[in-house]
Amino acid sequence: MNSFQRLLISLIPFALHVSPAIAEDDFLDRDSLFGDEPALARTKPVQETSPKIKGFIQFEAARTTADPEHWSKLRSRIDLGSNGKLGDNLKWKLGARFDYDFAYNINDFYNQDVKRNQRSNFELRENYLDFSHGDWDFRFGRQHVVWGEMVGLYFADVVSARDQREFILSEFDQMRIPQWAARAEYFAGDIHAEALWIPVASYDNIGKPGSEFFPYQPVAPGFQSQYRQELRPERNAENMNYGLRLSTLKNGWDVSGFYYRSTDINPTFYRDIIVAPTPTYVFQARHDRIHQLGGTVAKDLGDIILKGEAVYTKGRSFTVLNTADSDGVAQQNTLDWALGLDFNLPADTRLNVQVFQRQFFNYNTDLISDKRENGYSLLLNRKFFSDWEAQALFISSSNRPDWLFRPRVTWNFERNWRLLFGADIFKGPELGMFGRYDKQDRAYSEIRYSF
Questions:
Q1: Sign of torsion, CA 322 326 329 332?
Q2: Which residues on adjacent β-strands are paired with residue 205?
Q3: Which of 22, 234, 237, 320 has a 20 to 30 Å separation from 356 between CA atoms?
Q4: How far is CA 267 from the centre of its chain?
């Protein structure tokens, strides 16, 4: 074992350090694109042996390069899980994650609310029971429900909440927050039907004001801003979520459609105005009750994979810039859609190209967004030297120069080990999706050991 490997292994105790305090690849492969078999069927067969603990240990570091330059992440993470059988038709899975971020110990860049929210975390991951009977599968407990997955952005993936304290920069499987749900799935030939009930929902974690990627709201000149504590929906029958999804595979076309009634996992910032003694906007994040109707399509075209998603949303509100508006938001019906092509190229190279759009049907001219917000993304991935992989993701608006560029390189230097280096670069106007984080450009690295 050389000195570099000994150094990497010595990081394990550091990554395992977890505080007892408690708070709450981009590139899809062919199996993930066409694995439209249900979540229960995707579970790996469990051997008739004692359950084993699996997971990973990793250490992540990020340094924000804007003035003042600072460490924005020095996080150790351990993710543990196990599964097993209680009988021929009954299976279980348990999982948990522990984090501790040393960045909040070594500098005074962040306020106390941010430090409490992001220094240490304990989170239950997937914890459920699976039961099978004939053509029916049932899953009860905390679980991921993935109804769609494009590259870099979310469209039909409307069920799982997300940890957005790092915006959309984390890997999707790490960002997703499982829901406490009951799910039933039925199989008949090429037809797969799914019913979902979420009695107590989880919502996006947006962090606290003062954090790197808190979604600050626009403020008119001459006004200050304050943020009240987020208003989470009460746990009652009116705020339960439920949905239905049907999918089929015909002539190579993988098609699905769904209806989902929910309290929105995304918050909307409602606004009050205080005139005296100091003119102030007072914002509070709340969650609207919405309807969503959507679908997905995928087709294997040989060396090319076609994939598309669309979601119509009714009842969601959006920020408006009109100071005279009573609550600072307007309810809008929207259609979000994305269409992508995934190319298998020579020399272990893959290219993904996507176009996407959000259209407002009852457009309010005081919205920040245009009536039709268009965009595109490019992702290039190449493997080389057997254990190296380079990737670059570019996501941009077509309406304005507003973009995110994410290059990275990964080295799988030993079995179960990976080391990566990358950067996240934002550019755009102050109110742009990416431009609002123009001062959050960062360089980062990660080392992970999987077991």
A1: negative
A2: 163
A3: 320
A4: 14
The Cα 317–Cα 372 span in angstroms is 16
| Amino acid, single-letter form, for residue 53 | I
CA 439 vs. chain centroid, Å, equals 22
SS3 of residue 164 by DSSP: coil
Q: Measured at the alpha carbon of residue 437, what is the angle toward residues 144 and 201, in degrees to the nearest 5? A: 25
C-alpha to C-alpha distance for 267 and 231, rounded to whole angstroms: 9
Q: What pLDDT score does 48 carry? A: 52
Which residues of the chain are under the pLDDT cut of 70?
1-49
pTM confidence score: 0.87
- Nearest Cα to 162, choosing from 210, 207, 117? 207
- On the question of a cis peptide bond just before residue 277, with omega within 30 degrees of 0, the verdict is yes
For tokens 């490997």, name the residue. Answer: 5
Burial class of 238 by CB neighbour count within 10 A (0 to 12, 13 to 18, 19+): exposed
**H or E stretch at 172:** helix 172-175
Question: What does R_g of the chain's alpha carbons equal in angstroms?
Answer: 23
For the domain bounded by 3-450, which CATH number is listed? 2.40.160.10
Distance between CA atoms of 150 and 167, rounded to whole angstroms? Answer: 16
H helix count then E strand count, the chain = 6, 24
C-alpha separations of 34 from 39, 300, 428 in Å = 13, 8, 35
Where along the chain do its domains lie?
3-450
How does strand 304-319 pair with strand 329-345?
antiparallel
Q: Are 48 and 87 in contact, with CB atoms under 8 Å apart?
A: no
Residue-wise pLDDT for 326-366, tens only, equals: 999 999 999 999 999 999 999 999 999 999 999 999 999 99
pLDDT of res. 107: 86
pLDDT of residue 10: 41
Copy the structure tokens of residue 419: 């080391």
- Both tokens assigned to 150: 């494009």
